[in-house]
Write a structure and sequence with these properties.
The protein is an alpha+beta fold. The chain is built from three helices and eight strands, in the order αββββββααββ.
Length: 155
């Protein structure tokens, strides 16, 4: 009885880890890495893997704080992957992304003198961006699918 509940909830099931560089070139337009999967149970069937890069854009302070998430790139790897308890599965990936700059970011990159003013304006307004790679793995027979999120920096 507990075995079927564990399998449905994904307890002791497939564990996912993203292996990507901490820093990625903004202008490269591509990020490469590896998805590492392990498990404590036998007979695991991965049906698909969804990988996406997201920008979490926050602005404002207190009650006026607003947060938006923008998908910069996304791929879905379909196809079944079978593996057992002691197996370590590594799936390489290359994700293309598009980094869209705001008008303020464009001014910041324009020249050295404007850069300081733009940074000050962003600090006053509470503007920040956080970038992350999300991986969601669809496992057959599991209600709660395993996932991992890795925060990265764009330089």
């Amino acid at each position: 009885m507990f075995g079927s509940i564990k399998k449905t909830l994904g307890i002791e099931g497939v564990k996912v880890e993203i292996l990507v560089p901490e820093e990625i070139e903004r202008d490269s337009g591509i990020v490469s890495g590896i998805i590492k999967m392990t498990s404590l149970t036998e007979k695991n069937i991965v049906e698909s893997i969804q990988i996406k890069m997201v920008e979490k854009y926050a602005r404002g302070r207190g009650k006026n704080k607003r947060i938006n998430e923008y998908v910069m790139g996304q791929i879905v790897k379909k196809g079944r992957i079978y593996f057992a308890k002691s197996d370590i599965i590594e799936v390489p990936f290359s994700l293309k992304f598009v980094h869209v700059q705001s008008e303020m970011d464009k001014y910041e990159d324009l020249n050295f003198f404007v850069k300081g003013m733009v940074k000050a304006a962003k600090t006053i307004k509470g503007v920040s961006s956080e970038y992350a790679i999300h991986v969601d793995v669809q496992v057959k027979g599991t209600a709660l699918n395993p996932f991992d999120v890795k925060v990265i920096t764009l330089k």
